Every structure is written in structure tokens, then in C-alpha cells.
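Notes from hallway chat w/ T.B., transcribed later so I don't forget. T.B. wanted the structure written out for a chain they're using in a teaching module, and asked if we could keep both sequence and C-alpha cells in one place. Agreed to drop them here.
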Amino acid sequence: MNIAYWIVAGPLGLFSLYAGGVKVVRSREQLRPMMAWVDSTPMPAVRAIGTIEVLGAAGLILPPLTGIAPWAALAAAIGFAVLQIGATGVHLMRGERRIALNLTLLLTAAVTAWLATTWL
């Protein structure tokens, strides 16, 4: 289970670290080509979502790696699943039908959460 966790959680953590970091440091104009939803969202909220993603990535990787509070990996994975449910809802409300990435990330977060239960 430990190897399976890293196979699933590693890429999810790296993707979230990148996506969150981009939201934290780039301007609305730089984000617009990748994320049309930033036009209708206040930048402090975009920055907050990015910060949550960066902290969630740390929560997926650091606790199991260090052995300190490994239950936090489960909390981070559940948080990512909730985040993707919300993101899918935002895209659908905006009339966007391209939600395959969100659904893939939701599935990955759910599998990561299941695998993280080994540390409970």
C-alpha cells in the first residue's frame, strides 16, 4: 500500500504544487489563458485557492515522508477531493463542459485518501 500511495499521491502533489503556485504568483492576465474563471473571481480568492493547493500538496507529501502526523495526508486528500467537487461545480455553472481534468483529479484524490487510511 505504501508504494501505491506514492504512485498516486506523488503526481497529485506535484500537480497541485504547480497549479497552486501559479495561482499564487501570476497576475489575472497571465492566468486568464489557462483559467477563464479568474475573470469572475476576486484575486484574493484565487490566491487563497492557490495557497490551499500548495499547503495541500505539502500535506500529501511531508507527513508520510517524515512520519509526523501521517493522518494529515488523509485530511489533505479529502480536502483535494472537496476542492475538485467545488471546481467541477464552478465549471458547470459557467457552462463549461470540459471537466475531465477535474474529474480525474477528484478520482485521484479519492484513491489517495483511501490509500492514506493505512496510516490511521
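Follow-up for T.B.: The helical segments are 2-25, 28-31, 43-66, 71-93, 100-116. Might be a good example for the class.
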